[in-house]
Design goal:
about 40% strand; 17 helices; mainly beta; four-stranded antiparallel β-sheet; 52 strands
Length: about 900
């Protein structure tokens, strides 16, 4: 059995180990039968176990030891096939949520349907714990890596984090994702707060062998923080008995958690020792205006001297020396001293964002080690900002907004230009709203000023003035044009946005404003010289936003018919007083290309004897609405698809919104089929689809008939028809013989029924064979209502017969080369004629007993008269022995009908 997990908390092992004794009972670890055997390339050797250095820090705190793909391949190799009904770790997936960053882990970006391999990899990189160590922890605690039948509880308490022996797991850490995340985070809590705990690196510690104090302790010099963390997590050292039987049980004082961790890691990944590789921690990577700050510490176990650290910003390297004083590091690693910290600011050379990675540089044995990587914003480049408001008054304009240069937290200049004339402003006002979005730049970046402007001023533009890398930035331009108190003859402005051609029509759209009035003005559209006057009064929020003094009502969107072939469309804004303005001209070509209509039959809803059909349809060759046909079982209703559908206009803006349809049509009783067709203006129509519907079931009683009940042996054949007046679909029929029921569907073709009840069709017949007992019984047939009472269609009394075949060989006579036989036979258990076997001196022939024998029918009325046989068979000359028999259909011995001797000439 596996040692149960325990709650990891500050109180668990702080100060003394008196509390730890009560935490859990250490029991031998024997993997259950559901766990596949671990494949080890080379078995661990207990002589290599060092209780003071179970695993090197450089190995345990290597958050880049494996990738998600490598983890998945590793899991696949441990369990090839999972037991039916279980989900193994290699196949496990779950939704994860965001976890906030703190000083122990860098947080977690949740995602849907993440694999266990992805979760393990992301957590390892966030908290700086080796992916290999987390895999071993999952195996040590729950055997999850190799289990072929893991339980829900195994996943819920995967690492044992927050799961004491004496109470349920802490709900805040339950579940595989939380177990992995908070289990990894707990080791960082141990590492970064070494003085909180009873077991500490760099000193001698008395470590219990077992929760039972009578088993004693071992004095261990803990060499590193990773080993200290393992003892805090599982506070027992393996005794010699546990080490002597490394893959089995020791004695009553043995504990196995840390032994199993070391053994499993060694079996799966090789040595737990780093071989001289550096180790350390990336405490923080912070962005500041113009650069990145990196902070942490690094130690090479081969020297107590400071070592180099290389920081890479989007691929650009900077060499640092980790020689800052870090008393906390010196306390955790007294043999190395405290001069191993680094805290540097590195300028960035490009804006946007990128990855920042920091490496500890090896000095002797081993290799360089990645301390961590982060995706960071790079604050450099051209200014950013906004024009929040522009308020125009007679002769003045007030502007406000904000501007920041990413390279500095200081305020910068903003230049305001009115129709080309500039004024310098300072963006130094308080803007507390910017702190959330630009936390490293402060809040002194707002601007607000009132400028004098001419009465006919048109536009103001504002620019953020660059101080470092980059160029000046246009913050925005706004119209400051305002209506005059009197018409001063300014020319209209506007735009011909588009002339969208669809076949032989076009949609002409744009906007127009007369600067002297807020009112909507006329627009004239000319197609090949023929004009049409409209008013530009459609809502255009974009125009209202650009020219706030004039409002939104200045847009136009008009459908015009085009002449065949090439032509020109021109649009003019009509001045209230003065010259008109040409908004633009477009050359177009009109032609119906015969393209098929498109659309959607969206729904059909039934109410009583009518159905409402809805959808939309348009012809790509015209902007105008087209016809739609609605067919109900062949009966057609024609309408125009011109209802307002803003969603269609959103998807097909050229064609506008007038393409919807919704029409109520009559429908017959019961089921029917509704089909919709979009009618082409020139070319093939388009079927938009069909839907099957039915009227409401009113609970009317079914009708029908029992046409026949016939018996053969112990089988009754039942035939008839049944209809439910509330539906034209076939209904169920139940046949009862005594208390035994047989269900069938009345769906056979009955043209006579269809002729009598034409709305319902002919598929309402039923016929089936049902078993009946020997003797007299009652057969009753019921029509099953779709909603309501089930009526009895009729009952019949029947007599079941059973037993061996009966019959007789009446006569046999010889002829010239022939033998003639005559007789009768039937089997009470068989419906219809049986086959008689005629043997002439042992050579068997088969004869069908299906000839009319009124005498047999009179003697056996239940069997009928079609059971006689008479046949001339070929035979060789001489005296011959003739015998007749019938085989019992129940598998009994053949029944003899008699034998006789004849002479063949």
């Amino acid at each position: 059995m596996r040692q149960r997990s325990r709650r990891r908390s500050v109180a668990a092992v702080i100060a003394t180990w008196a509390c730890a004794i009560a935490l859990l009972a250490a029991v031998p670890v024997t993997l259950p039968a559901t766990i596949a055997p671990v494949e080890s390339a080379a078995a661990a050797d207990a002589r290599d176990f060092n209780p003071g250095n179970i695993i090197d820090d450089a190995v345990f705190y290597d958050g880049s030891a494996m990738g998600a793909g490598e983890i998945q391949s590793f899991l696949n190799g441990k369990v090839t096939t999972c037991r039916s009904g279980y989900t193994c770790l290699k196949d496990y997936r779950q939704n994860t949520d965001d976890r906030p960053a703190d000083k122990y882990c860098n947080g977690y970006a949740g995602a849907a349907n993440e694999s266990a391999a992805t979760i393990i990899d992301k957590v390892a990189r966030s908290c700086g714990i080796s992916q290999k160590a987390l895999l071993v922890l999952l195996q040590k605690e729950q055997g999850l890596v190799t289990s072929t039948a893991p339980s829900a509880w195994n996943y819920s308490a995967a690492t044992g984090q927050g799961c004491p022996d004496t109470a349920p797991c802490d709900a805040s850490t339950q579940g595989f994702f939380y177990q992995v995340y908070y289990g990894a985070r707990q080791f960082e809590v141990y590492r970064m707060n070494p003085s909180w705990w009873g077991y500490q690196a760099g000193r001698w510690n008395n470590i219990l062998y077992n929760p039972s104090a009578s088993c004693g302790t071992q004095r261990v010099f803990i060499e590193n923080q990773a080993t200290a963390g393992l003892y805090i997590y599982t506070p027992y050292v393996p005794n010699q008995a546990a080490l002597n039987n490394l893959y089995g049980e020791g004695d009553g004082c043995s504990a196995y958690g840390n032994r199993n961790f070391w053994r499993t890691y060694s079996d799966w990944f090789g040595s737990t020792q780093a071989g001289g590789r550096p180790f350390g921690n990336l405490d923080a990577i912070e962005a500041y205006p113009g650069g990145i700050r990196v902070r942490g510490w690094a130690i090479d176990p081969d020297t107590s001297d400071p070592i180099q650290v290389h920081a890479y910003l989007a691929g650009d390297a900077t060499a640092l020396t980790a020689d800052g004083d870090r008393p906390d590091v010196g306390s955790a690693y007294p043999g190395s001293g405290s001069r191993h910290g680094f805290d540097s600011r590195i300028p960035v050379t490009q804006g946007g964002s990128g990855q920042v990675c920091v490496y500890a540089i090896n000095t002797a044995r081993g290799s360089n080690v990645t301390l961590g990587c982060r995706d960071m914003p790079f604050y450099t480049g051209s200014p950013v900002g906004a024009v929040d408001a522009v308020k125009v008054s007679s002769g003045s304009v007030t502007v406000s907004g904000w501007a920041i240069d990413p390279d500095t937290a200081s305020s910068i200049d903003v230049h305001a230009y009115v129709d080309g004339v500039g004024t310098a402003l300072r963006a130094s006002g308080s803007r507390t709203d910017l702190a959330t979005h630009y936390p490293v730049h402060g809040t002194k970046h707002g601007y607000s000023a009132t400028l004098k402007v001419p009465l006919d001023a048109k536009q103001i533009c504002l620019y953020g003035i660059n101080t470092g890398r980059g160029d000046n930035t246009t913050l925005g331009c706004r119209s400051i044009m305002t209506p005059a108190s009197r018409d001063i003859g300014r020319a209209p402005i506007g735009s011909l946005d588009a002339v969208d051609v669809a076949g032989t029509s076009a949609r002409v759209s744009g906007w127009a404003i007369d600067p002297d009035t807020k009112k909507s003005i006329p627009v004239h559209i000319y197609v090949a010289g023929a004009g049409r006057a409209i008013t530009a009064d459609d809502s255009r929020r974009d125009v209202g936003g650009a020219y706030p003094a004039y409002g939104n009502a200045h847009g136009f969107s008009e459908v015009v018919d085009l002449v065949p072939g090439r032509s020109t469309v021109c649009v003019y804004a009509i001045n209230t007083s003065g010259a008109n303005t040409t908004l633009g001209c477009r050359d177009v070509t009109a032609a119906d290309q015969g393209r098929a209509p498109i659309g959607n039959f969206e729904s059909v809803s039934v109410s009583g004897r009518s159905a409402t059909v809805t959808g939309w349809a348009l012809d790509p060759d015209t902007v105008r609405p087209i016809a739609v046909r609605i067919s109900v079982d062949g009966k057609v209703t024609r309408l125009t698809a011109q209802a307002n559908r803003p969603d269609v206009a959103g998807a097909y803006p050229v064609y506008g919104a007038a393409h919807g349809f919704s029409r109520a049509v009559d429908i017959p009783i019961g089921p029917s089929k509704v089909c919709v067709t979009a009618v082409n203006t020139s070319g093939p129509d388009t079927d938009l689809g069909c839907r099957s519907i039915t009227t409401r079931d009113e609970g009317r009683t079914p009708i029908g008939s029992v046409d026949e009940v016939s018996v053969s042996g112990t089988t009754a054949t039942v035939r008839g028809w049944a209809i439910d007046p509330d539906t034209a679909r076939p209904i169920a029929v139940h046949v009862y013989v005594g208390g035994s029921a047989t269900a069938l569907t009345a769906d056979r073709s009955r043209p006579d029924v269809g002729a009598a009840y034409p709305p319902y069709g002919s598929a309402h017949g039923y016929q089936t064979n049902v078993p009946i007992p020997v003797g007299t019984s009652r057969v009753c047939i019921y029509a099953i209502n779709t909603a309501g009472a089930n009526p009895l269609l009729g009952c019949r009394t029947v007599i079941g017969m059973a037993g061996a075949p009966v019959g007789r060989l009446d006569a046999a006579s010889g002829g010239t080369g022939t033998v003639s036989v005559r007789g009768w036979a039937f089997d009470p258990d068989v419906k219809g004629p049986v086959t008689v076997r005629v043997a002439i001196d042992g050579t068997t022939r088969e004869v069908r007993a299906d000839k009319n024998r009124p005498d047999v029918g009179a003697a056996f009325p239940a069997a009928g008269s079609a059971h006689g046989f008479e046949q001339r068979l070929t035979a060789s000359k001489g005296n011959r022995r003739v015998c007749a028999s019938v085989v019992d259909d129940k598998g009994g011995s053949p029944v003899s009908l008699g034998c006789t001797s004849v002479t063949v000439r």
